């Protein structure tokens, strides 16, 4: 989570207003939308951390509509304000996690999808967001951006296992089974890839 957060922040730090106005890799979203989403997600996971700390239920988002509205508000912010929100949400989440006791880390919380999980799953939830969306910023590697090939192999392997479980995919198709790990990760996550013959998959995150 920490490595992915630093990676995302480093990429965003080099983007000016025009860069943020450009399209991300996610259909219908500019990079501003994506940065707003990642900032809002830190706040949302922070709600789960507070739930674990206090025992008082705090859902990630008040509603699906509230989640969408928050992203749209963030996407309309001036670049400096948007990046300030991102950095503030990142810092607040890290500080809240640092304060959790071992007992609190074991507390059950509910994800936005309705799954009941221990609070220990929240760092992995956040790691997926920052790492995958660092790729989704669609900044060329030569200009400071990353692809799945630039992410740690252990993260890509864990992400593949996670997505396969969610997609109930016990076996990989023949066209994918022996492919490079980064390309398999991109394919499983519904991102652009170079795997010829791989079946189309729907969105995942």
Write the SSE topology.
Blueprint: H1 2-13, H2 17-21, H3 31-54, H4 64-75, H5 79-99, H6 102-105, E1 108-110, E2 116-118, H7 122-136, H8 153-166, H9 174-177, H10 181-188
Antiparallel strand pairs: 1-2
Helix pairs in contact: 1-5, 1-7, 3-4, 3-5, 3-7, 8-10
| CATH C-level label of the largest domain | Mainly Alpha
End-to-end Cα distance: 16 Å
Number of helices: 10
In total, the number of strands is: 2
Shape: globular
CATH-assigned homologous superfamily of the largest domain:
dinb family like domain
Structural class: mainly alpha
The biggest beta sheet is recorded as: 2 strands, antiparallel
Cα-atom Rg, whole angstroms?
A: 17 Å
Spatial strand order of the main sheet: 1-2
Pattern of helices and strands: HHHHHHEEHHHH
> What is the second-level CATH architecture of the largest domain?
Up-down Bundle
Say what the CATH topology of the largest domain is: Four Helix Bundle (Hemerythrin (Met), subunit A)
> Roughly what is the average pLDDT, rounded to an integer?
95
Q: Kindly estimate the percentage of residues that lie in beta strands according to DSSP.
A: under 5%
List the domain count as a whole number. Answer: 2
Share of residues in helices: 55-70%
Instruction: Please mark out the parts with pLDDT under 50 across 5 or more consecutive residues, or reply none.
Output: none
